[in-house]
Amino acid sequence: MKILVTGGTGYIGSHTVVELQNAGYEVVVIDNFDNSHPSVLLNIEKITGKKVVFENIDIRDKKSLREFVSKNKDINAVIHFAASKAVGESVENPLKYYENNVGGTLNLLEAMQENGIENIVFSSSCTVYGEATPPVNEDAPIMLAQSPYGNTKQICEEVLLDQTNASNLKTVSLRYFNPVGAHDSALIGELPLGIPNNLVPYITQTAIGKREILTVFGNDYNTPDGTCIRDFIHVVDLAKAHIKAVEYLSNKKYKSSYSVFNLGTGKGSSVLEVIQTFEKVTQVKLNYKIGPRRGGDITQIYAGCEKAEKELGWKTERDLENCMKTAWDWEKKLESLLIS
Ligand code: NAD
Ligand code: WQD
Fold it and tell me: Would you give the DSSP letter of residue 99?
């Protein structure tokens, strides 16, 4: 089985390439390094002992993408990670997000159709649910998007559904909750450019001294400790779900040619619980303060994951402690990796 991974040098993509290679799949990666580093390729090879077949392609470049896909007609499935993902930036520069996330997906679907490639796994997000009562299942209503980024995920899901209905395409849309942690080897992990927006990289960067202090955005929410609640899922668990999704498509296990699955742990953790777990696991005291709420944050969300467990045969294996341990090991190793 040959799998094309778009955005395969990114955070979730790189971990998925490792799991695919370890499971014996032939993997082809494309990326434009917009939000990743070429050293990731070498580090994947160090983990799996297998060379990564890679081409530097921007999915917005329709001509290059079509040429590439037409030379690789034997691809059995595409896992489509390539996208821009910074919520704040999408508010400031919406056209970039619509062009990259929606335009790039259109180019990819066109190239797949031209070359008879019929299976796609798409990276969607729990952001499509907005504020809902947890646990949130796949049949929860899609809410008006809070940001252009969130809207690109909703639009892509709609485009994929329409194209699935109109052609031989088979689609699995995976709605990720909050991916965190890193590979056990600490050779790959999340590489936030500039100041991180997300909680866990902000925690690890503060602990290592790159940031002075972490601000907890609000402790006056209607939750047990007053801070927001999220469903933090280990990136390796998440990566493994993509293998299950590819199997689901290739073994034709689906009831409908368009399927949606939540990928989460089913358990909510508050911001303060995450901080306390980090301190416990690493024995590092974190410098943090309570600040005002961040605009646009929802109070709490966590996944209902029964569908993924029943139909994909997947559930998470790692806990929050392992998420914090691996995120910290990665942060400690990061500098030396980028230099080498
Ligand atoms: P990431 O930025 O680490 O990885 C995305 C990769 O895509 C990067 O390597 C980037 O260089 C590449 N890329 C971006 N635009 C491209 C283009 N035009 N052509 C080729 N390559 C391009 O992000 P990630 O966290 O690994 O996220 C992967 C996917 O999962 C994205 O679609 C993201 O929206 C989605 N997602 C992420 C999260 C999260 O919190 N990390 C949550 C839900 C959904
Ligand atoms: C988690 C909690 C913050 C930073 C985002 C995207 C979402 C999805 C996942 C892609 C919140 C708090 C954070 C800090 C803090 N991505 N926090 N201090 O907001 O749940 O989701 O990433 O699809 O679309 O919106 O994740 O990690 O930013 O925040 O107190 O410095 O941590 O307020 O309650 P979020 P996050």
Answer: I
Q: Which residues pair with 26 in a beta bridge?
A: 2
Distance between first and last Cα of the chain:
33
- Does residue 340 register a pLDDT over 70? no
Counted domains in the chain = 1
Neighbours of 48 (CB within 10 A): 16
- Compute the distance from residue 191 Cα to the ligand 1 centre, in Å: 11
Question: Mean of the per-residue pLDDT values for the chain?
Answer: 97
- Whether 149 is a known active-site residue: answer yes
The pLDDT score that the predictor gives to residue 338 is 66
Identify whether 237 is part of a domain.
yes
The enclosing domain of 64 has a CATH number of 3.40.50.720
Q: Which domain holds residue 64?
A: 2-181+232-264
Angle in degrees, CA 204, 210, 213, rounded to 5: 75
Res 110: pLDDT: 98
Q: Is any atom of ligand 2 closer than 6 Å to the C-beta of 125? A: yes
User: What DSSP designation does 128 have?
Assistant: G
Q: Is residue 71 part of a domain?
A: yes
319 in any annotated domain:
no
- Report whether residue 173 contacts ligand 1, using a CB cutoff of 6 Å: no
Q: Are 134 and 300 in contact (CB under 8 A)?
A: yes
pTM for this model (two decimals): 0.98
Task: Report the separation in Å between the CA atom of 284 and the middle of ligand 1, taken as the mean of its atom positions.
Answer: 30
- φ and ψ at residue 231, rounded to 5 degrees: -105, 100
- Residue 257 located in a structural domain: yes
